[in-house]
Amino acid sequence: MLAIKLQKIGRKHQPSFRLVVAEKRSKLIAPPVEDLGNYQPALKTLICNRDRVLHWLKVGAQPTTTVHNLLVKNGVIPGPKRLVRTKKPAVVEAPAPTAVNNASAPVSAEEPQAA
Fold first, then answer.
1. Mean pLDDT of the chain
2. The predicted structure's pLDDT at residue 84
3. Among the residues of the chain, which ranges form H helices?
4. Does residue 28 contact residue 10 with C-beta atoms inside 8 Å?
5. What ranges in 2-115 are assigned the alpha helix state H?
6. Going by C-beta distance under 8 Å and a sequence separation of 6 or more, which residues neighbour residue 69?
7. pTM for the structure as a whole
8. Which of 50, 20, 17, 24 is nearest to 32 (CA)?
9. Which of 41, 77, 81, 95 has the smallest set of CB atoms within 10 Å of its CB?
């Protein structure tokens, strides 16, 4: 199945992405089917070939959630944005400490103390 997704290019701490059509399960370094444009997150600019994006959507390519939101934001495709789900680490709650009331239990003087 084909997907429209972002392929990272650029240097460390200076990300830049290509908007490409590629197999959904392919690695990021695999050669894409077609290059549709680019996205620069530092400048928040998306430059893409609108006709080719619409062509691939008609053919059946599914955009990733991030790409879909970028295309909606820039007016390439109509519709609402999708909710981006991120994986959060599981939070383990510690059991609440139980308050033991020792005042009600009488202390006997005959019990030996541990040394």
1. 85
2. 85
3. 50-59, 65-73
4. no
5. 50-59, 65-73
6. 81, 82, 84
7. 0.70
8. 20
9. 95
Each residue's pLDDT tens digit, 14-34: 999 999 999 888 776 678 899
Does residue 105 surpass a pLDDT of 90?
no
Q: Rounded distance, CA 101 to CA 92, Å?
A: 27
CB of 69 closer than 8 Å to CB of 76: no
- Structure-block tokens of residue 26: 């392919």
The answer to whether the CB of 57 falls within 8 A of the CB of 42 is no
DSSP state of 20: E
CATH topology of domain 2-73: S16 Ribosomal Protein; Chain: A; (3.30.1320)
How large a percentage of the chain has pLDDT more than 90?
60
What is the distance between the alpha carbons of residues 108 and 90, in angstroms, rounded to a whole number? 47
C-alpha span between 79 and 87 (Å, rounded): 25
